[in-house]
Amino acid sequence: MTELTAPKSSVTAAQFADEIRNELKYTQGVTPEQAKPADVYVAAATAVRKHLMDSWMKTQQDMINGNTKAVGYLSAEFLMGKQLRNALLNSGLTEQFEAAVKELGFDPQQVTDAEYEPGLGNGGLGRLAACFIDSLASLGVPAFGYGIQYRYGIFRQEFDEEGRQIERPDYWLTNEDPWGHIDYERDQRVSFGGEVVEEDGKRVWKPSWSVRAIPVDYMVPGYESGRVNTLRLWQARSYDEFDLLTFNKSEYLDAVKPQVKAENISKILYPEDSTEVGKELRLEQQYFFASASIHDAIRVFYPNQDKPDLTTFPDKICFQLNDTHPVIGIPELMRILLDEYGYDWDTAWNITTKTFNYTCHTLLPEALEVWPVALISKLLPRHMEIINKINDQFMHELEEMTDDEAKVERMRIVTDGDTPSVRMAYLASYAGEHVNGVAELHSQLLKDVTLRDFSDLFPKKFTNVTNGVTPRRFMKLANPGLSDLITEGLGTDKWLEDLELLKNLEPLAQDDEFVKKFAQVKYDNKIKFADFAKREYGFDIDSSTMFDTMIKRLHEYKRQALKILEVIATYADIKSGKVKIEDVTPRTVIFGAKAAPGYYLAKMTIQLINNVAKVINNDPDVMGKLKVVFPWNYNIRVAQYLIPATELDEQISQAGKEASGTSNMKFALNGALTVGTLDGANVEIRERVGADNFFLFGMTVDEVEKMYADGYDPAKYYEADPRLKAAIDMVAKGTFSDGDEDTYAPLVSDWLTKDWFMTLADFTAYHDIQSEIETLYGDQLEWNRKAIINVANSGYFSSDRSIEDYLERVWMTGPLK
Ligand code: 26V
């Protein structure tokens, strides 16, 4: 076996150009003269993959032969972003690529732009999975990411004339995907439906239909580690491609029904949505990838063994359940052990409970998955039996442990009542070896509120692992200017592997020369973003204004409404002359957000933001002072332009609702200051960067709870703050809907009568902090000092640190030797 790829590849630019020419010829079948940038992209990607191949094979071999336990990260989402730049960086081929592509007569930027971004995730949860597999590989930990290769990722967002969100299918596989290697020989059968019968005293599942799970493998190269892990995404295909008999009767549509049914399973990524539609399909997806992945792990670690000793399974691999989506894997492993390998219940339970760990990513009760017993029984009858047995066992244990009958009842995994259901978070909390939240505050609230009974009974299970982000993509690739400056300041580029080294930048915050260089980098990034926004969206953005950004899924708890109401109030202040135009700090307020297609109020908020933008941006009275831009279809690529350019980052969720947030970390690491509430990881960011370098406002978790308890009346706040009243009145009276008072009536009515996330209650505090922000912004040297202090103290938020915490607290494993 060949050695691991050297960190810096020894290939020359000329050699790499030859490799690209070769791929153009033998893979694409075009000459360099005929080639388009997209051809060069595919050729370069194919060449890079070949460079990684030896390390990939060696990593797999070491994993199987070695005795380091591997990690299987089971996730319904992996929001990877574009691959080429990352693969070049991690294989040490960036410079060769640049030179080679130019030698071939192409613009490197155009070539990398030709890659279509796979959007196989909704937001933070999926991006976290992508950051984690990057860090696992970079730390040399043997790992698989396991998920689904959706044919359609998150929808492509457009805005119509009225500013409403339109969802278009994201068919990301129309063009060649040079990264995914489809491996027909490593397929798995996944079955559904049917019944369970008694045969020779055994329960035997007779499923009624099956699909073929085919793995598509993506290489996950580590940074400077020489290791390349695997992201294995399953594609669903039919075993019965085609019913020839039916076809010959000219019933063409019926003939392809089995194929359509099977392929539907990996057809689309579900939006994080509360609607009922397609629940069944969603459970099919979850079981599909959980089952295929567990079988795959057995195949990998016990090659060619008919009767493997699966009592050693937990020493080979542990599975991380990324939220409740793969939790059906728990009864699936039980079923495999009991039915396929003939283990007794206790042995199977012992193996299973050592294999799984569960991460919870939310505090919203409606986001904790619950499946009706009837649905599981129909799709997975044997699993339902097993879940019932797990529930019985649990109830029995509980009765031994406590006399509190109400508590035992509360903790049921399988509820009774009108619609008996299975609570997946409870199943995972009982069967999982460890349970973790994703930021200190969130983990505490899980223990105190959401999973309190479980944490009371199993205190040792519960732990925290604060999220992190990969500095490779979100600093080195996204912000080369800042990366170079940091390397210059520290005298080393080792910080990309050990982000705590950023701490040594702190003294440079007092060095005016350094601060000026830092400010220049920020300004260059603003210009870069403005150019990008002009090119891609046609926006005119003035780079001398403050870039004030809010990017995240559109959700009421995140409170985009708070931001837009403040914008409207400021607009009204200027219009009425209450604020003198020369006293206004010019701002460009930038939003990026997708709303779940079925989420009515979220979509209406998008429409409102667009129309506020339309009115304000066309009003000569505020021209040059206030502008709102909303680039549609926010994705990783947009993030990579926007985050480095941002000066003020909005993290303004209602305290106690945002589990962690990860863009907050990306912003701090890229030298933005945060305005935020004491929520999620904001708390830890503020602790680290210092209260003086963070704009805090708003109610705390305790204050929020008290307000719920006392009865919250939003109308009171509307009456009390004339600015707030003016802003809401403008929306109600049609200022942003051509005089139509109905357009936003549902939104206005919700604010005034319900306002579940207390936007109105926090409005005044949010406004009050603005003058502090503007005063500081007026002193650019001070502002940038604070921004540098943010960068210097955010090294903790590297996903490498998160993974190290998982290794120590949850997985109990480490890098390959
Ligand atoms: C799901 C649902 C489904 C029902 C309707 C409402 C709703 C709202 C949110 C969700 C998503 C929950 C899972 C999730 O994406 N959590 C995010 O995970 C990130 C990574 O840990 C974390 O930074 C974010 O704070 C958290 O929202």
UniProtKB/TrEMBL annotation:
Residue numbers carrying N6-(pyridoxal phosphate)lysine: 666
Keyword Transferase: yes
UniProt-recorded Gene Ontology molecular function terms: glycogen phosphorylase activity; pyridoxal phosphate binding
Annotated Gene Ontology cellular component terms: cytoplasm
EC number: 2.4.1.1
Pfam families cross-referenced by the UniProt entry: Phosphorylase
CDD domains: GT35_Glycogen_Phosphorylase
Top-level class of the enzyme under EC nomenclature: transferase
GO BP: any one term: glycogen catabolic process
Names of the cofactor(s): pyridoxal 5'-phosphate
Catalytic reaction equation(s): [(1->4)-alpha-D-glucosyl](n) + phosphate = [(1->4)-alpha-D-glucosyl](n-1) + alpha-D-glucose 1-phosphate
Glycosyltransferase found in the keyword field: yes
SUPFAM superfamilies hit by this protein: UDP-Glycosyltransferase/glycogen phosphorylase
Signal sequence residues: none
Keywords: Carbohydrate metabolism, Glycosyltransferase, Pyridoxal phosphate, Transferase
Function in brief: Allosteric enzyme that catalyzes the rate-limiting step in glycogen catabolism, the phosphorolytic cleavage of glycogen to produce glucose-1-phosphate, and plays a central role in maintaining cellular and organismal glucose homeostasis.
Family that this chain belongs to: Belongs to the glycogen phosphorylase family.
The name this protein goes by in its record: Alpha-1,4 glucan phosphorylase
Organism of origin: Bifidobacterium pseudolongum subsp. globosum
